[in-house]
Amino acid sequence: MAEHGRTGPDAADFPARRAPKARDLRELDRDVARCRACPRLVAWREEAGRVKRKAFLDWDYWAKPVPGLGPPDAGLAIVGLAPAAHGGNRTGRMFTGDRSGDVLFAALHAVGLASQPTSVTRDDGLELYGVRIAAPVHCAPPANKPTPEERSTCRPWLARELELLRPTLRAVVVLGAFGWQALLPVLAEAGWQVGRPRPGFGHGAHVELAGPAGEPALHLLGCYHVSQHNVFTGRLTPAMLREVLAHGAELAGIDHTGP
Q1: Rounded to an integer, what distance in angstroms lies between the CA atom of residue 141 and that of residue 203?
Q2: Cα gap 10→141, rounded to integer Å
Q3: Residue 109 CB-half CA count within 13 A
Q4: Which family does it belong to (predicted)?
Q5: Do residues 112 and 167 touch, judged by C-beta distance below 8 A?
Q6: What is the mean pLDDT of residues 25-36?
Q7: Where are the alpha helices (DSSP H) in the chain?
Q8: In whole angstroms, what is the distance from residue 52 CA to residue 255 CA?
Q9: Cβ contacts of 161-164, under 8 Å, gap ≥ 24
């Protein structure tokens, strides 16, 4: 039974109830954007939309959960962390409107996986080629740190997203240790053979996970997150990011030269 008798989008079990019912990614994305299951995240994302940064005072913030981005037949998935309070939470699109996104989309464009090198608004014409961007947490969290409970509550959305992508999905690039740790249980529950001990995260890590009988293997690639800290300190360079993305595209069988 839902917490305190609640059954709508503000119920704690809303993701677990709704995600499995999504017939396609369009329906899943619509349900994600309705979710209010985590009170702390709801309060934070909406507060960020009211108390805006000076540079964005004229913006009408999205201030809702941010759905995934990319085609329904993607061969490659990119799994990050969560939207930024004044990036995706403002624009309503993953990695759009912040410096992390500037780095990611420039790299995707450079290796032929995006139609343009920048992502500024939801209607700026950006297209991804063979790539779907997903996240283990769909709401902007305080200090960019969702709690384990919030991650668990949000997990059904990611599980269903991967299930819907399953017919074409062949590789996943994971940005950062948080996304890696969040993704492995989802893959294991879906039938991919993750094994014990579970593979550790590292930049350049490459793990091939056997699928259920008769299904292709899934290639899992680690990459440092495109955070400002990692980029400014040189821990992750544009060349390093391009290399991992190109490798992922090749493993997924994507002709990454555009549409």
Answers
A1: 24
A2: 17
A3: 13
A4: Belongs to the uracil-DNA glycosylase (UDG) superfamily. Type 5 (UDGb) family.
A5: no
A6: 98
A7: 14-18, 25-34, 39-50, 88-91, 99-110, 148-165, 177-189, 228-232, 238-251
A8: 41
A9: 161/25, 161/28, 161/68, 161/132, 161/134, 162/77, 162/134, 162/186, 162/187, 162/190, 163/190, 164/22, 164/24, 164/25, 164/28, 164/72
- Domains in the chain and their CATH numbers? 3-251 (3.40.470.10)
Do residues 37 and 11 touch, judged by C-beta distance below 8 A? yes
pTM of the model: 0.93
DSSP, collapsed to helix, strand or coil, labels residue 69 as: strand
The 3 state secondary structure assigned to 121-169 is CCCCCCCECCEEEECCCCCCCHHHCCCHHHHHHHHHHHHHHHHHHCCCC
